[in-house]
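Q: Could you fold this chain for me?
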Amino acid sequence: MIDGKYFEELFKTAKAFNEFLLTLIDPRTYLKEITEQEFEEFYKNSGEMIFELNRACWGFLFELSAALAKRDSEEVFKAVGNAMERFEEIYAKYMNNAVVSALINSVNSAYMRSLLNLQNFTSAMLHVFGMVSRKDVIALSEAYVDLKGDIKKESRKILEEVRALKEKIEKMEKSKGGGSDAQ
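A: Sure. Below is the predicted structure, expressed as structure tokens.
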């Protein structure tokens, strides 16, 4: 027979799991820099956007059905074009807020981290097999550019020193030549 303690533990577990899910799906968990007002605006805008998208979708289906009934390809293209314009306007109207920007930045950051991790893993695997990775090629090209710059810099210094030595030699020859002419 099941006693009251079992149900109590079952409800505690369900409550803890529910709180975990709510924390997991709440953007405030990840976007702590967003204010409460910005979140309220996001939820309000999201609800309005869903209703407007629904209205635009039904409008599109009505226009498309009418165009198909006329069997006019120009009307079909016009209906699709109008629908795309409406959808773009709706998204432009509602997607310009701090929460959406923060979510997109978070997704972008996660993507860049995963891409870097994948590149590091691939590079490590290639090294294990004794092959050259993209990182190696980039490092070599950067080293080549640095070396080329250093060679140019040193060449300029050497050319300047040679030029200075030429000037000294010319001065010495002029002073020798001028002294022998006077005697």
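A (continued): The mean pLDDT is 84.
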